[in-house]
């Protein structure tokens, strides 16, 4: 911190203090000038210096000319801010894919081969044999040599193993669901270790409970816990943000339409295939849907304000030109929950007008829609009772992977 009384529009060369952090990677150091006088609260200036060193450094003196946009008639103070995109303490791995031997984990490894080039990454799970098996399968199909990929043994029922895993890397990609049952221990371990956490959860109860219980701890540690990074709900959430960025005006409302085309990807079964973890998440998510109201009252405290014009609910079953005149039903996934949490963040922290949002799923055939309504009603009824959930999980012969 340096105080400069009566700073002129063009500040002189300033010698900044030494920064010594032997265990931190610096990409660049940002010096932000923040006026301390009440009359200059609108004046904010900054300068930054990029660093070519990739590992521990000593920053002795940084020299800057800083031109102010307005005259400053008060002292200003310097605050050093280390921008750490990947700049946590030195660790031997950048990324660990946890739950790698499962359905989601396998496809994450395929993506990792393409996206993690140049980074040090490993796969993790509770069974070394299963990890070796999935690695050989991916290696055979991708044609990539994965023999140097490290295997990390960690179990959601062993908190110490999770902490040790998280402490070795900068980011954990958590593929172990259902997250209602297995997500929290990984989130907790990552926060304790100061490690960022990413998952593909589509479970609103889990995501909102993690925010309620761990937001302040994560904030204090400088850790990001990012959920819904799969089909649920990147297209809806980032699509809404992108639309707002490209829209010439103020976006009042967004409606999303997911096209459902019933097909059988499995010729052996002749029916639709669903991953067991997704099926289990849907069962317990619907069974405990009534938890959301109480959870949200604790998390948010109050509702978002109502803005006009209000986005009206469409009929349960309808057709619309916006979806090529297909039959539409409300989409029961997590898209709306995720989008509205983002909108609340923008409203609370950036004072932006929240965008209203509704999500729908569309079908080309009325017969398909009627079938979906009937099956959904039976499904919802069965999830209300323990015996019904057991039947859905164990007895009903729905092809699952």
Automatic annotation (TrEMBL):
One of its GO terms (cellular component) is plasma membrane. Pfam families: Sacchrp_dh_NADP. Keywords: Membrane, Transmembrane, Transmembrane helix. The keyword Membrane applies. GO terms for biological process: glycolipid biosynthetic process. The chain crosses the membrane at residues 359-382. It comes from the Eukaryota. Residues 95-226 form the Saccharopine dehydrogenase NADP binding domain. The keyword DNA-binding does not apply. Belongs to the saccharopine dehydrogenase family. This is Saccharopine dehydrogenase-like oxidoreductase. It comes from Culex pipiens.
């Amino acid at each position: 911190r340096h105080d400069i009384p009566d700073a002129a529009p063009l500040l002189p060369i300033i010698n900044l203090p030494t920064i010594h952090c032997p265990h931190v990677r610096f990409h660049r150091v940002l010096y932000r000038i923040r006026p301390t006088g009440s009359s200059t609260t609108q004046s904010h200036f900054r300068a930054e210096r990029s660093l070519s060193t990739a590992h521990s450094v000593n920053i002795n003196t940084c020299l800057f000319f800083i031109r102010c946009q307005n005259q400053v008639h008060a002292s200003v103070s310097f605050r050093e801010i280390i921008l750490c995109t990947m700049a946590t303490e030195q660790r031997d791995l950048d990324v660990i894919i946890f739950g790698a031997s499962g359905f989601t984990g396998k496809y994450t490894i395929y993506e990792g081969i393409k996206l993690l080039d140049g980074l040090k990454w490993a796969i993790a799970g509770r069974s070394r044999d299963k990890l070796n098996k999935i690695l050989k399968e991916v290696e055979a199909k991708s044609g990539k040599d994965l023999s140097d990929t490290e295997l990390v043994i960690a179990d959601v029922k062993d908190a110490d193993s999770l902490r040790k895993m998280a402490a070795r890397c900068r980011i954990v990609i958590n593929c172990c669901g259902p997250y209602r049952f297995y997500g929290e221990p990984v989130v907790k371990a990552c926060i304790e270790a100061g490690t960022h956490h990413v998952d593909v959860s589509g479970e609103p109860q889990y995501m909102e409970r993690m925010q309620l219980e761990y937001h302040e701890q994560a904030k204090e540690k400088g850790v990001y816990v990012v959920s819904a990074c799969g089909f649920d709900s990147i297209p809806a959430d980032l699509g809404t943000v992108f639309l707002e960025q490209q829209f010439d005006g103020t976006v009042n409302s967004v409606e999303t339409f997911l096209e459902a085309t019933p097909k059988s990807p499995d010729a052996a079964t002749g029916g639709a295939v669903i991953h067991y973890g997704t099926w289990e998440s849907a069962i317990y998510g619907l069974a405990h849907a009534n938890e959301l109201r109480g959870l949200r009252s604790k998390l948010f405290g109050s509702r978002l304000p109502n803005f006009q014009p209000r986005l009206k609910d469409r009929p349960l079953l309808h057709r619309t030109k916006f979806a090529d005149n297909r039959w539409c039903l409300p989409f029961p996934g997590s898209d709306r929950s995720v989008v509205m949490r983002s909108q609340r963040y923008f409203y609370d922290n950036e004072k932006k007008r929240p965008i209203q949002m509704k999500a729908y799923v569309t079908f080309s055939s009325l017969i398909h829609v009627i079938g979906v309504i009937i099956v959904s009603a039976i499904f919802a009824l069965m999830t209300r009772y323990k015996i019904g959930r057991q039947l859905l999980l164990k007895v009903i012969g729905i092809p699952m992977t």
